[in-house]
Amino acid sequence: MIDRRKFSGLALVAIASLPHARAQINVPVEGTHFLEMSPRQPTRDRAQVEVVEFFAYSCVHCHAFEPALDAWQKALPAGILFRRIPVAFNDGAQVLHQRLYFALESLGLLERLHRRVFAAIHVQHDHLHSAPEIAAFLARNGVDAEQVMQVMNSFGVTSRLKPAMQLAGGYGIEGTPSLGIDGRWLTSGSMAGSNQRSLQVADYLLSLAMKKR
């Protein structure tokens, strides 16, 4: 069994060693650089500290943020769970993109296609506004489009849409990308000053979360 106090201490050291944490100069200020959630929002596993990125494939800032965020999340210490929640601010293409994300996740295709979806929309300007456009994108990338489309429209994926939007609503998400930390705090590029700075704020909040364990 892992001693929780020992684990928390090791995780704090690991978080402090991250480049974003070392580069941090000023202590983030609640109400300016981050917000505290009241009530606390649910997390997937209360035994782990959780980071949630709220994003949309149609969001150009999410596309620009992805390389830095991906490198950051891969460097997180063990015991910190990182996950993404696609959000929709309208009933059009963003809902299709939510379905696409959850389908790719369930089929184990995110590592292969997550960035390619961003690139299709923001680099190739293939906005994937319809099911046929998404199917064509999948086929171009050597994926069984019919299988993915079936999963997109499955009960399993449909059942994930409402909880995703409920969590986004609980956090008060008004824009993307935003980072929810352990159900307790929210930060974003607009609050922190830049998306890069939001990772520094997230490091700070993760250290607070570990101290509460």
UniProtKB/TrEMBL annotation:
<feature type="domain" description="Thioredoxin">
    <location>
        <begin position="12"/>
        <end position="157"/>
    </location>
</feature>
<protein>
    <recommendedName>
        <fullName>Thiol:disulfide interchange protein</fullName>
    </recommendedName>
</protein>
<dbReference type="InterPro" id="IPR023205">
    <property type="entry name" value="DsbA/DsbL"/>
</dbReference>
<keyword id="KW-0732">Signal</keyword>
<dbReference type="InterPro" id="IPR050824">
    <property type="entry name" value="Thiol_disulfide_DsbA"/>
</dbReference>
<dbReference type="InterPro" id="IPR036249">
    <property type="entry name" value="Thioredoxin-like_sf"/>
</dbReference>
<dbReference type="Pfam" id="PF01323">
    <property type="entry name" value="DSBA"/>
</dbReference>
<feature type="disulfide bond" description="Redox-active">
    <location>
        <begin position="59"/>
        <end position="62"/>
    </location>
</feature>
<comment type="similarity">
    <text>Belongs to the thioredoxin family. DsbA subfamily.</text>
</comment>
<dbReference type="InterPro" id="IPR001853">
    <property type="entry name" value="DSBA-like_thioredoxin_dom"/>
</dbReference>
<dbReference type="InterPro" id="IPR013766">
    <property type="entry name" value="Thioredoxin_domain"/>
</dbReference>
<dbReference type="GO" id="GO:0042597">
    <property type="term" value="C:periplasmic space"/>
</dbReference>
<keyword id="KW-0676">Redox-active center</keyword>
<keyword id="KW-0574">Periplasm</keyword>
<keyword id="KW-1015">Disulfide bond</keyword>
<dbReference type="GO" id="GO:0016491">
    <property type="term" value="F:oxidoreductase activity"/>
</dbReference>
